[in-house]
Amino acid sequence: MDIELGVQNVARPVTFSTEASADEVGAVIADAVASGKVIDLTDDKGRRIVVPAAALGYAIIGSETKHAVGFGALDA
């Protein structure tokens, strides 16, 4: 799933993919914002993304569907 985090006073958003579900990511973000702590997520390559909740401008949580890449069988 693709995640985009907009950080205040930063021109580019933080974008990454994760294996976590939309509910899990949403819960982590909501808890961090409510408690004033950091948003701590792990991407699908094992890297940690840590953003102060106070600096979060917006969060876009993408769909959980995997998009197919390549060509399907063509019937002639």
Strand residues, percent: 25-35%
Count of DSSP helices?
A: 1
Topology pattern, helix = H, strand = E:
EEHEEE
Number of strands: 5
Poorly predicted runs of 5 or more residues: none
Q: Roughly how many Å apart are the termini? A: 35 Å
Residue-averaged pLDDT:
88
What does this entry show, briefly?
Keywords: ATP-binding, Nucleotide-binding. With about 80 residues, the protein is α+β, with helices and mostly antiparallel strands. It is about 20% helix and about 35% strand.
How would you characterize the overall build of this protein?
This protein is an alpha+beta fold. The protein has one domain. 18% of the residues lie in helices and 34% in strands. It contains 1 helix and 5 strands. It has one helix at 22-35, and strands spanning 2-7, 14-17, 38-42, 48-52, 56-61. The strands form 2 sheets. Strands 2-1-5 form a 3-stranded antiparallel β-sheet, with helices on one face. It has a two-stranded antiparallel ribbon with strand order 3-4. A hairpin with a 6-residue loop joins strand 1 and strand 2. The chain is elongated. The termini are far apart. The mean pLDDT is 88.
